[in-house]
# Entry
Amino acid sequence: GDSVTQTEGLVTLTEGLPVMLNCTYQSTYSPFLFWYVQHLNEAPKLLLKSFTDNKRPEHQGFHATLHKSSSSFHLQKSSAQLSDSALYYCADYGSSGNKLIFGIGTLLSVKP
Amino acid sequence: NAGVIQTPRHKVTGKGQEATLWCEPISGHSAVFWYRQTIVQGLEFLTYFRNQAPIDDSGMPKERFSAQMPNQSHSTLKIQSTQPQDSAVYLCASSFSGTGGATEVFFGKGTRLTVV
# Structure
């Protein structure tokens, strides 16, 4: 069935270093991929989305490229900031087309 | 626009008691979703309404969980005979159409349920 895999449960970085959070998916039909970010005691919010192969959307310094050949949608940022510390979820609409299927989430902790 | 509103934000129940969680979706949104959030499972889909009609409840534990949407301005998730494993953050979300593609899903801050 459809699924989203995030391999890192916790990523700890020093401020200024690059960020890369992994996301791979299994989708029966054409994928629609999303990254959501959730800060402490806040609601998850949309960060990025992509439906087009090899296109790279950007928002707030983050970017992610959907690669259908490798079924991946990794989240990247060139330089981590303290304010980037949050829980990041990768998601896909999958074959159902009517509900988001989420990965387990990656907690990003950025330290000075 | 106050966003998706969930009440209460925190709820503590004794084992075996009933818990009712409330959600007010964004005005004008026709789709409402419920998710359960835990460290172990991440965000698990529970159920989905479109125009108040139940569309997909494939994620709902069948025996003790139920959800309703009596009108377009609120939805409830009810858990009967709560168990410690029901402890989680329950998130409600809404979107314009509920179909895939470019439709953005907006989440509430959730209700943290603790069963003691």
